[in-house]
Design brief:
This protein has 241 residues and is an alpha/beta fold. The protein has one domain: Rossmann fold (3-Layer(aba) Sandwich), CATH 3.40.50. The protein is built from nine helices and six strands; from the N terminus they run H-H-H-E-H-H-E-H-H-E-H-E-E-H-E.
Length: 241
């Protein structure tokens, strides 16, 4: 009889401990700072529903795809959300990139992965590849935000995840204030393939946090295309410029 009671007591003690911890260290939504309720993870249910979805993955002529026309031969290109200044998606991206919150990227990735499975008739992708950071920059930040998103996307969709298929061999200056042409030059010869898989059998989904001009993704895609892979690209958000 005691063996049946002990697990119940342990569960109650654990629940009480969790409630006590949350009283002093409240678990807040990364998008709206409201208190998360039990079973909510990182982003509250209200914010998940309110995030501005694009559904670009079912539109071959979406604005993200058009960004790459005439630049690089992609199979698909899309973003899951519209970037809206001052709104929830901007706060989430800021926390992912600057506030030491890799969990934000992982959770958004899981949501996006489940959406891929739901919206596409079949998943053509054989692997997910994050846009790599230079090792020095990754050491400073502590993680690669694109990798966090990619890992979550893999978990939500069951697509294989390649953590280090692409490496960054050259550190570049920030892209923020550069023109479209300057961004392209800035990314030349930056990335290297560090795997000997049979690329002719691969359809790789390159992922990043935000797509603006797409220069970084173009540079990554070109390296993989030279190896014989099919390539698509996706990001958390799309910022129209």
């Amino acid at each position: 009889m005691k063996r049946k009671i002990y697990p119940l007591i342990e569960a109650k003690v654990l629940s009480l401990a969790e409630d006590t911890i949350s009283l002093f260290y409240p678990n807040l939504c990364a998008a709206c700072d409201e208190l998360l309720v039990r079973n909510e993870e990182v982003i509250c249910t209200k914010c998940k529903v309110s995030l501005p979805r694009t559904y670009f993955m079912i539109d071959d002529y979406n604005p993200v795809a058009k960004q790459f026309w005439g630049k690089v031969n992609l199979q698909m290109a899309f973003a899951f959300y519209y970037f809206q200044k001052g709104e929830r998606i901007q706060r989430l991206l800021h926390r992912l990139k600057y506030d030491k919150r890799p969990d934000v990227g992982e959770v958004i990735g899981k949501i996006a992965g489940r959406e891929l499975v739901k919206e596409l008739e079949y998943l053509p992708f054989t692997g997910i590849v994050p846009v790599p950071l230079h090792p020095h920059k990754e050491r400073i930040r502590g993680y690669n935000q694109a990798a966090c998103f990619g890992e979550g996307l893999s978990e939500g969709s069951t697509i294989k995840y390649y953590s280090d298929l692409l490496t960054r061999v050259k550190h570049t200056s920030t892209q923020t204030k550069k023109s479209r042409y300057e961004r392209h030059l800035n990314m030349a010869s930056v990335f290297h393939v560090s795997s000997d898989i049979d690329f002719s059998k691969e359809h790789l989904l390159l992922v990043d946090d935000v797509i603006t001009t797409g220069s970084t993704l173009c540079a990554c895609a070109e390296v993989l295309l030279e190896k014989g892979a099919k390539v698509s690209v996706a990001s958390i958000a799309f910022a129209a410029i």
